[in-house]
């Protein structure tokens, strides 16, 4: 009973945040409702016993990634989005299609609900066991993802830097050299 | 103290569908990006639910991989958004219709 109440509590917050993300027109409001969704999902992970995943969810997802999003929104000074081009065919076909698909999936899932139950804290995912798996069975994928992150860092640096800093123009090399000399001189004087 | 596994899967499906809807109806490129994150979160929930159901911890390890890929994707994607904004001065996807910067 406690499990069901807690599940419905966190699940309700989660769905409300997701719907609010769709409804809001200002990106910063959408970002904040996404933080709500991620925090309540961490609660769901705790209910399932995945404590370490819940902690990582809050730290990495709701912390690092969302800070990146909000930083970009504020950097670009993103305003309210304008609604353009409402397609009538999409409305006529999309809404019934989504409704039929959702009802079908829900029906299939709930029909088999009696055979499979999940108990509270069913599988405690303590860091020790996860580390055993991660650094033993999944060592190769772990290393590959580290390479992926390295590539992503380099890609982000190259893409986000200004075009002049990637390919320096040789229009005024003399002036640049003077600037560098001035900077070096200033550094020496400071010392 | 047990509830059906399908409740978790339903919640995961609802989150995924919300992400797909946001991807389709939103016009701001940053909000579209957030919808993708919402979809990834829905999938993560089903990973953890199935890990609890089958008593296999590898489901939770896969959540880590999904998070790493999501973080890498967010970093590169936001850098691309900044590069696009620098040349187009807009965040509306309807006005960004050329791959060329």
Q: Summed up, what is this model?
A:
Chain A is built from 8 helices and 1 strand; from the N terminus they run H-H-H-H-E-H-H-H-H. By secondary structure, chain A is mainly α.
Descriptive tags:
heterodimer; A: 191 residues; mainly alpha; Four Helix Bundle (Hemerythrin (Met), subunit A); 8 helices; extended; B: 101 residues; Helix Hairpins; 3% strand
Shape of chain A: extended
Multimerization status: heterodimer
Biggest interface in this structure?
A-B, 81 and 69 residues
Q: On the 0-100 scale, what is the average pLDDT of chain B?
A: 90
Continuous helix count of chain A: 8
The rounded Rg of chain B comes to 17 Å
Tally of distinct domains of chain B: 1
Sheet with most strands of chain B: none
Structure summary, number of beta strands of chain B = 1
Fold and architecture overview:
- The complex is a heterodimer of chains A (191) and B (101).
- Chain A is mostly helical.
- Among the domains of chain A are: 1-80 and 116-125, Up-down Bundle (Four Helix Bundle (Hemerythrin (Met), subunit A)); 126-163.
- Chain A is 77% helix and 2% strand.
- In chain A, 23% of the residues are buried.
- The mean pLDDT of chain A is 83.
- With 101 residues, chain B is mainly α.
- Chain B has a single domain, classed as Helix Hairpins.
- Chain B has helices spanning 5-25, 29-54, 58-88, and one strand at 2-4.
- The relative contact order of chain B is 0.13.
- Chains A and B meet through helix 1, helix 2, helix 3, helix 4 and strand 1 of A and strand 1, helix 1, helix 2 and helix 3 of B.
- Strand 1 (117-119) of chain A pairs antiparallel with strand 1 of chain B, so a sheet runs across the interface.
